[in-house]
Specification:
alpha/beta, Glycerol-3-phosphate (1)-acyltransferase, 16 helices, 7 strands, about 55% helix, globular
């Protein structure tokens, strides 16, 4: 594959940004973005956007301020740990995936805060909701993951994506964020899908062990005190149990907007140990499926271990277990907030089995506790 094979999936280069910026600024939606993010300073940030000469300038001067505003306005504070050991030398970051835009957006904010380069961001083409959104995303290092087509086309696209990512990481020493699974975790049970590791390894399909080792994978754990789209996720999980779930035309847009604007409480990002610290210990390196299962299991272990869990997580666990194990970390006021939030779920699905709904809703918050406990039990 030559460089032209990647034109359909790669982000914009610096020499391509001027016409893309012009299209973004000319779209009426850009004014809504400015009004939401920078009330009273719209003209200042419009000028910053228009006059950017590189993607790096656009990110450090505009997107950094945008992410900071979102964190300050819609969260109880953003914190991070482990990034003192972050190697700014080209690697893959694999994280659990809770929110469409915030997961990679806040990661880039953290990296900029620490003086590092931002990462490329893999993003499903099913989430490219308009030409405006596509231009904004490609101006922020979006790498398109094509998720439709025949089985043969999907395989070809996976090979192309793997080759592109490997060239960026290994040859150009750029880093890329990849979610641990296609689509957000709906039930709080974060598990790395083997298909993701397989796709990453396709560039060297004869030796998946060498392929993953060269990509130098780092896990990141993301926790939100309040899941910004928990109500919509509960609805989707419930309805999916009853029949094949078909998303409405506006659901992805609603989830994207909800993730940005809804209150999230406290947010924490934790960088774990590199997969290369453990990959040599995997015994079955020649059987690709067994090897990838073991690698995925190690990533999950790192993500579970490094969760920063919140009172909402512990309270949901206690409710489900009918226990008082963690009662010292939450109070009745939090329980009341929790109950009010669940009332909104019931209002959305008034004819549903409310006991089942409650179980789904609670597990969004409790599953991280169960997973972290499972890691502790393995010691």
């Amino acid at each position: 594959m030559n460089e032209l094979d990647f034109d359909s999936i790669r982000p914009f280069r610096d020499d391509e940004i001027v016409p893309a910026i012009e299209k973004v600024v000319a779209d009426p939606k850009f004014n809504y973005v400015l009004d939401f993010l920078f009330p009273g300073e719209q003209d200042k940030y419009r000028e910053i956007y228009i006059n950017a000469k590189s993607i790096k300038e656009l990110q450090t001067k505009f997107m950094y301020a945008a992410m900071e505003t979102i964190a300050k306005r819609t969260s109880g504070g953003l914190s991070w740990s482990g990034f003192e050991k972050y190697p700014d030398t080209g690697h893959i970051i694999i994280s659990n995936h809770r929110d469409i835009l915030l997961d990679p957006g806040l990661l880039c904010y953290i990296l900029m805060s620490e003086g590092y380069e931002t990462v490329g961001i893999t993003f499903g083409n099913n989430l490219i909701l308009s030409s405006f959104f596509e231009n904004v995303a490609k101006l922020n290092k979006m790498i398109t993951v094509i998720r439709d087509g025949s089985p043969r086309e999907l395989l070809t696209n996976s090979f192309r994506l793997s080759n592109y990512i490997s060239k960026e990481v290994i040859e150009k020493r750029n880093s890329i964020w990849v979610a641990q699974r296609p689509g957000r975790t709906k039930d709080g049970n974060d598990k790395t899908e083997i298909s993701i590791l397989k796709m990453l390894s396709y560039y060297n399909k004869d030796d998946f062990y060498v392929a993953l080792k060269q990509l130098d994978i780092y896990p990141v754990s993301i926790t939100y005190e309040w899941e910004p789209c928990d109500i919509m996720k509960t609805r989707e999980v419930y309805l999916s149990r009853k029949s094949k779930y078909v998303k409405g035309k506006t659901e992805d847009l609603e989830s994207t907007i909800g993730g940005i604007t809804n209150y999230k409480g406290r947010i924490h990002y934790s960088l774990g140990e590199p997969l290369n610290n453990f990959i040599d210990e995997i015994e079955d390196k020649r059987n690709s499926n067994n090897f990838l299962k073991s690698a995925a299991k190690e990533l999950d272990k790192q993500i579970f271990k490094n969760y920063k869990l919140w009172p909402t997580n512990f309270m949901a666990y206690d409710i489900l277990e009918n226990s008082s194990k963690y009662q010292g970390v939450y109070d009745n006021e939090l329980r009341e907030k929790f109950d009010l939030r669940f009332e909104k779920v019931k209002q959305l699905l008034p004819d549903a089995n409310h006991a089942e709904l409650r179980d789904i809703f609670l597990k969004i918050y409790a599953n991280p506790v169960y997973n972290q406990l499972s890691v502790a039990e393995q010691k």
